[in-house]
C-alpha cells in the first residue's frame, strides 16, 4: 500500500490540513500505517501535482492561513482502482524472533539480557493495547451503530486489538520458555 492510499482514505473520511492529517495518522490511521509529518506533507504536494487532492486556503485568526486538503475525483478514481487490486500477504521481518532463536546459542547471561528485552518489548505492546482500548471506548461507544464507515473503522481497530493481544500472549510464552531454560534441573 502506498501512503497516497492511506491519505486518500483519511481525506475521504474528513478533509483536513496537513497538520490535522498528521495528527490523525498519529492517533488512528497509525494503528496500521505509519508516516512522519514530513512524509505526509511531501506526498500531499505530489498528490496535488497529480490532481488527486485539492487544497483550499482557510483563514485563521492570529495565525497564518492553513490549507485544507480534500480528495479530488482523480484521487477517488485511483482509490477505487486500488481497492479492486489484490493484496499480497506481507513478508514478516521480526528482529526479536531472530534474537529469540539465537538464544539457543547464548549463555545464561545472554538469555537474561534477552528476558529484559522481551519484557521491555512486552511493555511497549501493553501500552499500545491500552491506547487501542481507550480509543475504542472513546470512538466507538455504541458497537451497534449501523454506520458503515464507523463499522469498518471499528473492525480495523478490533484487528489491532486482537493482534496486540496475540503478541502479548506470545511474549508471555517466550518469557516462560526463556525462564524455564535457566531453571536448575532436579
Automatic annotation (TrEMBL):
Keywords: DNA-binding. One of its GO terms (molecular function) is DNA binding. InterPro entries: Tscrpt_reg_PadR_C, Tscrpt_reg_PadR_N, WH-like_DNA-bd_sf, WH_DNA-bd_sf. It comes from the Bacteria. Residues 92-179 form the Transcription regulator PadR C-terminal domain. The keyword Nucleotide-binding does not apply. Coiled coil: none annotated. The keyword Lyase does not apply. Residues 7-81 form the Transcription regulator PadR N-terminal domain. It holds the Pfam family Vir_act_alpha_C. This is DNA-binding transcriptional regulator, PadR family. The lineage of its organism: Bacteria, Bacillati, Actinomycetota, Actinomycetes, Micromonosporales.
